[in-house]
Amino acid sequence: MSHEMSYMGHRAFNHDQNREVEEEYDRLRDLARQEAAKRGSCFERSREAYENGDGALAKELSEQGKAHGRKMEEYNRQASEFIFRENNANGRVPPDTIDLHGQFVEEAEEILEQRIKYAREHGQTHLHVIVGKGNHSVNHVQKLKPRIEQVCRDLGLQYATEENAGRIYVNLTGGPADMPPEQHYQQPQHYDGEYHTTPQHQQPQQQPQQAQQAQQVQAQPEQKDEVEQIVETVLPRVLRKLEKACCVVM
User: Fold this and answer.
1) Residue-level pLDDT at 222
2) I need a labelling partner for 83 at 20 to 30 A (CA). Which of 52, 56, 144, 243 fits?
3) Which among 132, 103, 135 is positioned nearest to 234, based on CA atoms?
4) Range 92-207 classified under CATH 3.30.710.10
5) What would the mean pLDDT of 180-205 be, rounded to a whole number?
6) What pTM was estimated for this model as a whole?
7) Where are the alpha helices (DSSP H) in the chain?
């Protein structure tokens, strides 16, 4: 997998969020970019020192660059974990959905692979993957969607773009990605039609309010475990991969 560090645009949340929370996410990514710039500067000066015959200075600058690289990775890990928990918290996405807004491509690939593994282990037959339309990306180019589709192909899974172009439906059984009518969704409700989603067709019968509340309570522990499992399993592996990258495009 590539080490390209691009993500889905300035706004990284799929729901209404207070300014303090979004500022914290931006702060972490900005700190990572600052450390990346310092790392690049150290490595460039290290190269120049080596070419000038000053091996000791070259080694010192190289070590400084590596230290900045470790700080960059840590800030990106914190940002990835933070945004994943925010976007996938209980009640913000359905149990059959994962939201990858705010993730760098490398992070999103690893998270999706782990989420698919988790879904299969728990008998889930499909998954809705929110990838965004690229409305907030440079030239409105969807950088994440093609890579997520490649993950599905690598795993031998069929997929289809939903009516909301910022979502992908993935069949986890290996069969065709044919969505039943109730699986289609309208355009999201917020942020240029990119984030919230609502069912296009209502179920013929509505459950009583108490039954709905009981169902939500029962679903919460499992979904919380899922989010924590992905955070604890995926992000350390992402960092190990990034450590091997010689260049990171912010």
Assistant:
1) 53
2) 243
3) 103
4) no
5) 42
6) 0.69
7) 19-51, 55-87, 105-121, 144-154, 209-243
